[in-house]
Amino acid sequence: MGEPSQGDKDTLRAYRDKRRFDRTREPQGRRPEPDSPSVPSDERPRFVVQIHDARTMHFDFRLEVDGVLKSWSVPKGPSTDPHDKRLAVPTEDHPLEYREFEGVIPAGEYGGGTVIVWDHGTYRPMSHDRRKRPVPFAASLERGHATFWLDGDKLHGGYALTRFRDADTDGGGDGGGGGGRGKAAWLLVKTADGRAREDGHGTPDPRRARSVRSGRTLRQVAEHPEATWHSDRSGRGQRASGPPEG
Ligand code: MN
After folding, report:
1. pTM surpassing 0.90?
2. How far is residue 50's CA from residue 99's CA, in Å, rounded to a whole number?
3. Sign of the C-alpha dihedral, residues 63, 65, 68, 72?
4. What confidence tens digit (pLDDT) does each residue in 6-44 have?
5. Ligand 1 centre from 140 Cα, in Å?
6. Helix or strand or coil: residue 85?
7. Distance 12 CA to ligand 1 centre (A)
8. CA 91 to CA 193: how far, in whole Å?
9. DSSP assignment, residue 219?
10. What is d(CA 11, CA 28) in angstroms, rounded to the nearest whole number?
11. Torsion-angle region of residue 2: left (phi > 0), alpha (psi -120 to 50) or beta?
12. Which among 98, 113, 92 has a CA at the least distance from the CA of 27?
């Protein structure tokens, strides 16, 4: 709804535009406060990796940056093996509350399917310029190469996200080609460090994976979505039956 002061851009607009919140229980998200740092200086920014059994199974890799979750869809999921280059396709910024989202998005809605929180934790930006000076993380992402250290329950150590194809922002006459390959594309790669594993077991099996929040598999969440905690709903304690989260 048009508010007079629109100096700050609403980075969650695309997120909200895609969803009907009377039908999906995904969080609507608060508007990030323009001038307040999103992360208190004594806290590290957080990350989450969700598994999303939608039209196609994929992982959603999200990093907290400037009050939102920068997001990539990673079809095969992150690997612990530095030899694996995982395609990561940027998706719209998500609200911070999405970190906790686990449940079923109704069929027919955007992203319809089951979501579990596969991993979560904090990360440390590690991007440096050529003189080894730290580069602000958002700036490194804008330039298309960011390195960071993950401290999750499952994922540990250094990772790099590198853009190898820019979005086709050609707003002019459409090529009419219908190729539709206009999306930016990145690679998510494990850094060769002490937390790397090269034993060939670097790729998680999404159907057997369990949520770090509830211990449940995709199938278990799909069968009993009512047992899912929806932190976005108003009213404290609107906890449906089901296991308490950790
Ligand atoms: Mn997704």
Report:
1. no
2. 8
3. negative
4. 445 688 999 999 999 999 999 998 765 555 555 556 689
5. 24
6. strand
7. 16
8. 28
9. H
10. 13
11. beta
12. 98
Buried b (16+ CB within 10 A) or exposed e, 169-198: eeeeeeeeeeeeeeebbbbbbbbeeebbee
In the numeric block, the tokens 């991993």 are attached to: 119
Assign 114 to helix, strand or coil: strand
Give the residue ranges of the chain where pLDDT is below 70: 1-9, 31-42, 169-181, 228-246
Max intra-chain CA distance, the chain: 57
Residue type, 142: E
Strands (DSSP E) contained in 173-221 are 185-190
Q: Which residues pair with 165 in a beta bridge?
A: 185
Determine the residue type at 24: T
Ligand 1 centroid–CA 239 distance in Å is: 24
- How far is the centre of ligand 1, averaged over its atoms, from the C-alpha of 18 (Å)? 12
Task: Kindly give the distance from the C-alpha atom of residue 130 to the centroid of ligand 1, in angstroms, as a whole number.
Answer: 35
Residues 6+ apart with CB under 8 A from 181: 168
Locate 142 and state its tokens.
Answer: 């804008």
133 contacts: CB under 8 Å, gap ≥ 6: none
Residues near ion ligand 1 (Cβ under 5 Å): 52, 60
